[in-house]
Amino acid sequence: MNLQIAADGQSGPTAARAEVAETSAGCQLANALVTFWLGTNRIPDGDAWFSRLLAPPGEVDATRDLSLHDHGYLVFWGGEHDRAAERFRESLDLAASLDDASLQALALAGLARVALYTDASEAVRLLRKAIELTRDLPPAELDHARAEGAAMSREQAVAYALT
After folding, report:
1. Mean pLDDT per 10-residue segment, the chain (163 residues)
2. How far apart are alpha carbons 153 and 157 in whole angstroms?
3. DSSP letter assigned to residue 141
4. For 71, what's the count of Cα atoms within 13 Å in the CB-facing half-sphere?
5. What pLDDT, on the 0 to 100 scale, is given for residue 141?
6. Engineering a disulfide at 91: which of 69, 85, 147, 151 sits with its beta carbon 3.0 to 4.6 angstroms away?
7. What share of the chain is helix, strand, coil (3-state, %, to 5)?
8. Is pTM beyond 0.90 here?
9. How many C-beta neighbours within 10 Å does residue 79 have?
């Protein structure tokens, strides 16, 4: 919560708007720090940030959706594949409610990353679904999916090998 609002003892709509804005800003910062947390082996720190930010129900928006995905990505590399899959599924559901095909493809790619360890054919199915969702999108709307695709050399190799 905004410290000034808390210090003034304010509550109600003003305090709620400030808290939503700060949670959104916190999510944006956490999303930007994922590479740092991975590169410095501080995955537990990032996990704690995301867990705290995503615990309360939040705005139904692309920032929250991307944070759900990025949290899944972070804990995936920490070896917590089940938690990662849970976050990717939450991201997929939110992206579908937003009707955002690019974010849906990103979540599907995350789920494919997890599936690759147990069921390569499921990973390929998920990646094909992501491709189908984004097939007709203009390039400007593919930023999220393109960024994930650049990091998916292993999954892409499997997809191409099985096609």
Report:
1. 38 42 86 94 96 87 94 97 98 96 94 94 94 83 54 48 47
2. 6
3. G
4. 27
5. 66
6. 69
7. 80, 0, 20
8. no
9. 9
Distance between CA 118 and CA 40 in Å, rounded?
28
| pLDDT of res. 49 | 94
Tokens of 124: 């390929």
Domain boundaries in the chain?
3-162
Q: Which two tokens stand for residue 12?
A: 């109600």
Does CATH place domain 3-162 in 3.90.700.10? no
Q: What is the pLDDT of residue 22?
A: 80
Name the token pair of 95. Answer: 């992206």
Tokens of 129: 């679904």
Cβ(100)–Cβ(145) below 8 Å: no
Residue 142 has a pLDDT of 63
Token readout for 15 is 């305090």
